[in-house]
UniProtKB/TrEMBL annotation:
Region named Disordered: 193-238
Residue spans of biased composition, Basic and acidic residues class: 215-238
Top-level division of the source organism's lineage: Eukaryota
The name this protein goes by in its record: Peptidase A2 domain-containing protein
Compositional bias annotation for Polar residues: 203-212
Source organism of the structure: Phytophthora sojae (strain P6497)
């Protein structure tokens, strides 16, 4: 059963109608066209209208109290009292955005996709990490994958897909994507992002335990065991 909520489409087992006691109701004729990911037409028997009641999913502050969480708004962090773990809150804002245009003309067959090179319009730093997203001016049937990419000589790799049943040409210079520069701080550990460091043990117990573990590993890796000579049957010996 295909569930169309108006915002998303999802497949639901037809047994749901039996559980709701509406499996015997007649279905209205469906005149639309729905295709699978392979492009084949789906055989739809009909449609029926179902009403859903959404329950409350609000989470109160009692959940934070159960875990002993303390929120620091100024530092944008959440600290768990039980473990002392500090979690960052919020997200890293994107600093710069640039358009990306096709470096060459590309022909996409129906239901086809390709990896193409695109030129970044603007002065972007080489080796920078960027988030590649589809441009708002593209046709609905031309899709661009949302990926992370590294800028090489002012170029990025863009994955484009033709979702239509017709051949599509993307001309050189067409704006196909927008690239947003991701700061290096987004890839750093949480402790480094908050400006803190991992506390070291004062008594040196952690270093001793780490040394003992490494010594055990070296003993297991470097040890050589002499294999015993296999038994050879009398009829096979020279």
């Amino acid at each position: 059963m295909l569930n169309d909520t108006g915002a998303t489409l999802s497949l639901v087992d037809r047994c749901v109608l039996k559980r709701l006691g509406r499996s015997s109701e007649p279905l209205y004729p469906y005149e639309g066209l729905v295709r699978s990911s392979s492009g084949h037409k789906l055989r739809i028997r009909g449609w029926i209208s179902l009403s859903f009641r959404l329950g409350s999913v609000e989470i109160s502050l009692s959940v934070l109290g159960a875990f002993g969480a303390v929120i620091d708004v100024a530092e944008r962090s959440l600290t768990l009292k039980s473990s002392g773990e500090v979690l960052p809150l919020g997200f890293t804002m994107v600093e710069e955005s640039y358009m990306a245009t096709m470096a060459t003309s590309v022909r996409l067959p129906p239901r086809g996709q390709a990896l193409v090179g695109a030129r970044v319009v603007g002065d972007v730093t080489d080796k920078a990490f960027v988030l590649v997203e589809g441009s708002l001016g593209l046709p609905p049937t031309l899709c661009v994958a949302r990926t992370l990419c590294t800028v090489e000589d002012g170029r990025v790799i863009v994955e484009v897909c033709n979702a239509s049943t017709d051949e599509y040409w993307i001309r050189k210079g067409t704006v196909v994507a927008s690239t947003s520069v991701i700061p290096e701080s987004a890839f750093e550990p949480a402790t480094a992002a908050l400006g803190g460091t991992v506390p070291a043990e004062s008594d040196g117990s952690s270093g001793a335990s780490a040394m003992s573990v490494s010594e055990k590993c070296e003993e297991g890796v470097g040890k050589k065991v002499k294999a015993s000579k296999p038994d050879i049957p009398p009829d096979k010996s020279d």
